[in-house]
Design goal:
By secondary structure, this protein is of the alpha+beta class. It has 7 helices and 20 strands. It is 19% helix and 37% strand.
Length: 298
């Protein structure tokens, strides 16, 4: 939705998260802090941003405490940095805005070169806000939860360290969908449909759709195709027993946990969505055209 200038001054306390371990973010972080202070806004840093700035630049808080204390979080990095931030701040309900220092920039869509004019518009109340679905995954072993994580892009159950396929049962709301032999399966949000799921042959889902995509990874039979289901469903993936079973679950390509035969992975839509902030002229289809070079002549 597009919010008007009557929403000016709703962002008074700004939290900043930077890309861990990347010295290249220092200049953008320093310019951002200077800009926000000139606008007389209160600035708080998480440890990833503070490590690249002079001591006493601003108050430093741990990630969850930061999310609870601010009105807006600005993430300086690429989409991977924003994915990491999203999982840690989603429960607080604080909106995120991304300054893109990465390559693709599907999520972090403000460039450092346009940071000041874009932030002027956003902080003056002209911005687009949208809710993005997250997934919550749990691993059950012998009926007990042994691991769990959120994901903004995808939850992937996949083989590791072997050249053989694994065998999976996939259930939707307690009903068997199929048994498949493959390298794994991607369970994707609409946001994640342009990531790993797209590489696996899945469809692009508009971010506003109430949907989840299931995309097999290199299935043994070619008639095992991607499927899109409603996002109110519970998905259960059972790792079938086998002599060569070595598998793991990965969330957003960043959180990993090893799986054992007969483990059950249960995935549902997370109750709280993530709120993303964009400039007022944000155009999802324009991003697709730019990133995939649709319409360009060979």
């Amino acid at each position: 939705m597009l919010l008007s200038a009557t929403m000016k001054d709703i962002f008074k306390r700004i939290g900043i998260i930077g890309k861990f371990g990347d010295p290249n973010v220092a200049d953008t972080l320093a310019a951002l802090v200077d800009y926000l202070k000139r606008r007389r806004l209160e600035v708080l840093l998480d440890t990833s941003a503070a490590e690249r700035l002079p001591p006493d630049t601003a108050e430093v808080l741990e990630r969850q405490a930061l999310a609870e204390a601010v009105d807006l979080v600005i993430v300086v990095g690429g989409d991977g940095t924003l994915l990491n931030a999203a999982r840690s701040v989603a429960d607080a309900g604080v909106p995120l805005l991304g300054i893109n220092l990465g390559r693709l920039g599907f999520l972090a869509d403000v460039s450092p070169e346009q940071m000041t004019p874009e932030l002027d518009r956003i902080l003056d109340g002209n911005f687009t806000a949208e809710d993005r679905t997250l997934l919550h995954a749990r691993v059950l072993r012998g009926g007990q939860v042994v691991a769990e994580s959120d994901a903004l892009n995808d939850v992937v159950v996949h083989k590791w360290d072997i050249a053989r396929m694994i065998e999976l049962e996939v259930h939707i709301d307690g009903r068997l969908l199929h048994t498949q032999r493959s390298d794994g399966i991607i369970v994707s949000t609409p946001t994640g449909s342009t990531a790993y799921a797209l590489s696996g042959g899945g469809p692009i889902l508009h971010p506003t759709l109430n949907a989840i995509g299931l995309v097999p990874i290199c299935p043994h039979t070619l008639n095992n195709r991607p499927i899109v289901i409603g996002d109110t469903a519970e998905i259960e993936i059972v790792l079938r027993n086998g002599a060569y079973t070595q598998a793991q679950i990965t969330c957003d390509g960043q959180i990993n946990f090893g799986l054992l035969p007969e483990d059950r992975v249960r995935i549902r839509r997370k109750g709280k969505p993530l709120k993303l902030i964009h400039p007022p002229d944000y155009d999802y289809f324009g991003i697709l055209r730019a990133k995939f070079r649709w319409g360009e002549q060979a």
